[in-house]
Design goal:
The chain has about 475 residues and is of the alpha+beta class. Strands 1, 2, 3, 4, 5, 6, 7, 8, 9 and 10 form a 10-stranded mixed sheet that branches. β2 and β3 form a beta hairpin. α12 crosses α14.
């Protein structure tokens, strides 16, 4: 927060204090995390101040994220949307809009978050929040009416804006290879055209949500020739066995394949790749260019008779001439799942949807703070895997690791700090992780619970531990 600009030095100081308080107890409510009536009141006044906006609070975190990206050879910029459900049984949040055709109300959050290729989060590059207007239901429009509507007037324009934003970041980090990732919801032709336009310096991967037509002679697609058919005509490059995680449908009568239920199993997939030129769709207000893309198809062979086959069709600007390059495209796209983990930390760990605000405008600054807290929590969890041998003091203060060591081991802390992997496991043990031989690395849930207890123990260590200053102590 050193570079935050809230137009008021007192607000800047208060924001730093609130960030430390909420970061120290991410699962606790604001009154509990602040630790007193005066501190709680000051926090709510901060969120109610018109100078403390969502964008101003998040800007310095974005700048720090850019510095972390600049130190990496490759950074993956994942964009995705999640609902912030603010439905209250006895209270209506002023400014919240409908989330669906039911009674749920809240806002939508679209995030561009940076990760390393091994899944370590680097921070939120940019984010936008909006609430739908009452009575505006784009799904009630006919297909023709939606086709005639400019994309700038649709919610889907956020995908184009974030692709453009990724290109701007590429100019700020010339030594880092940036790859923008999007799931099938981002399969919008304008997004592909934006990614292919000019020398933007950013690569991209988008999972196909539809089987697009291929450009033919004189601008016409050959009969029956679409992307999937073209790539299926290519030879199999390699086969591989993968673990498929089961899932249940969140919505009854779900028709979209990517959200239908499936069983857990070990599946064998075959991989093909090719290069095609897409035929641009018709738009009423503009003429779109043809876009040439590389396609990687990951397709399950021999799926169970009563289950749907796993299939990924990835459209990308990355090269696919060699098998290792095709593998890299798939490995990069697998990191996209980390944005779902990030949203889980934000909602279940930081419990941002449970914050009791009467106005959406007051929730948004709080949401910006919790985006930083959620990154920090997931960062600690993942960094223990990507850099297990580094000293834990790269992340934890001496009072934190010494207090945790004393509590878990019931012995005095060593003179040399433990490794980061060992420290993360100790923290996770405070959150319920069973650190037995052969156990996998701890997940974010045990880490965020353990971090909350870590900060409490560190406070006790500073006040009453062997290194505490002698004399009167004020808590």
């Amino acid at each position: 927060m050193s570079t935050v600009d809230l137009k008021d030095r007192r607000l800047k100081k208060r924001l730093k204090e609130v960030l430390s308080q909420l970061g120290g107890q991410p699962t606790a409510g604001i009154p509990t995390a602040c630790g007193g009536h005066a501190e709680m009141t000051a926090a709510y006044r901060l969120f109610d101040n018109p100078k403390a906006t969502f964008g101003r609070i998040l800007t310095p975190h974005g700048e720090a994220t850019r510095r972390r990206m600049a130190e990496e050879p490759v950074a993956l910029l994942v964009q995705d949307t999640t609902e912030v459900d603010l439905t209250r049984p006895s209270q209506q949040v002023v400014g919240a809009g409908p989330l669906d055709r039911g009674a749920r109300r809240g806002a939508l959050l679209h995030v561009l978050h940076a990760f390393t290729p091994d899944g370590t989060p680097l921070g939120t590059v940019d984010a936008v929040v909006w609430a739908r207007q009452e009575g505006v239901r784009s799904r009630s429009l006919t297909r023709g009416e939606r086709a005639r509507m400019p994309i700038e007037e649709k919610e889907s324009h956020r995908w184009v804006e974030m692709m453009r934003r990724a290109g701007e970041e590429a100019g700020q980090c010339p030594e880092t290879r940036l790859v923008c990732l999007a799931d099938s919801e981002g399969d919008i032709y304008e997004v592909l055209a934006e990614g292919a336009a000019g020398e933007r310096g950013v690569e991209w991967i988008v999972r196909a949500g539809q089987d697009r037509a291929v450009q033919g002679e004189r601008g016409k697609a050959p009969v029956g020739r679409r992307v999937r058919e073209q790539v299926l005509a290519q030879p199999v490059l390699f086969r591989q066995k993968i673990r498929v995680r089961g899932r249940t449908a969140k919505v009854q009568c779900e028709t979209r394949g990517r959200r239908q239920p499936r069983r857990s199993r070990e599946a064998e997939v075959e991989v093909r790749a090719t290069r095609v030129t897409l035929r641009p769709p018709w738009r009423a207000e503009r003429r779109l260019p043809a876009v040439t893309v590389n396609v990687v198809l990951v397709r399950e062979t021999g799926p169970p008779a009563d289950d749907k086959a796993v299939e990924w069709q990835l459209l990308t600007s990355l090269p696919i001439e060699e098998i290792d390059q095709v593998r890299q495209v798939i490995q990069y796209y697998c990191v996209r799942w980390m944005i779902e983990v990030f949203f889980r930390v934000l909602k279940s760990g930081c419990r941002v949807e449970k914050r009791r605000f009467e106005h959406l405008d007051r929730l948004l600054p709080c949401l910006a703070v919790y985006l930083i807290v959620a990154w920090r929590t997931l960062f600690v969890c993942r960094l223990g895997r990507s850099g297990p041998e580094m000293s834990c003091e790269a992340v934890f203060e001496p009072a934190e690791w010494k207090a945790v060591w004393q509590v878990v081991h019931r012995t005095a802390p060593p003179a040399t700090p433990p490794s980061l992997d060992e420290m993360v496991r100790l923290v996770a043990q405070l959150g319920g992780y069973v650190n037995r031989r052969g156990a996998g690395p701890p997940g974010p849930q045990t880490v965020w619970i353990g971090l909350q207890r870590t900060y409490d123990f560190a406070l006790g260590w500073r006040l009453f531990g062997p290194e505490a200053q002698k004399g009167p102590r004020h808590v």
